[in-house]
Write a structure and sequence with these properties.
Number of helices: 9
Structural class: mainly alpha
Distance between the termini: 63 Å
Oligomer: single chain
Helix content: over 70%
Strand content: under 5%
Number of strands: 0
Order of helices and strands: HHHHHHHHH
Length: 146
């Protein structure tokens, strides 16, 4: 038996944006619904493809790319949101992204002057790109490191 209050709340949340099952469960628990009422609703939503982990992952990927983040950061965030490694891999495969270009864009947005002053400045720029989730190969390509 599906609780109509839980179903209505879940629909309301999903109408605004995609959510992972973990997120949806947490938000419904915060609204003080019982877990025994939440689980059947989540199963039904997933079965009917109203809630999709794959769609959520792709949506999150597009959002984070537009904000200048790299794959390492995005993958960690997807894992934290409750997606399995299989779904994360499928999300990665579903999008054709030039991560080197994304690293270049993030670098240019943050550092308008491209001249590296000294080692301290270079280290700062490397840390920035690492924090943003870009691999060392991508960072090396952006900074023209040998």
């Amino acid at each position: 038996m599906i609780n109509k209050g839980v179903k209505k709340a879940a629909y309301s949340l999903l109408a605004r944006r995609e959510h992972s099952q973990r997120e949806l469960k947490q938000k419904l628990l915060q609204r003080e619904f019982a877990e025994t009422d939440i689980l059947p609703v989540l199963d039904a939503l997933s079965t009917q493809d109203i809630q999709s982990e794959q769609r959520f992952g792709e949506s999150m990927l597009r959002q984070r790319i537009s904000k200048g983040y790299g794959w390492i950061y995005i993958a960690a965030e997807l894992k934290q949101k409750g997606l399995t490694s299989d779904i994360i891999a499928a999300v990665y495969q579903s999008q054709q992204v030039d991560w080197y270009h994304q690293a270049q864009l993030a670098y240019e947005k943050r550092f308008a002057d491209r001249n590296i002053i000294d080692q301290k400045d270079k280290a700062k720029r490397i840390r920035f790109l690492q924090y943003r989730g870009f691999s060392f190969e991508q960072i090396s390509a952006v900074l023209n490191l040998d």
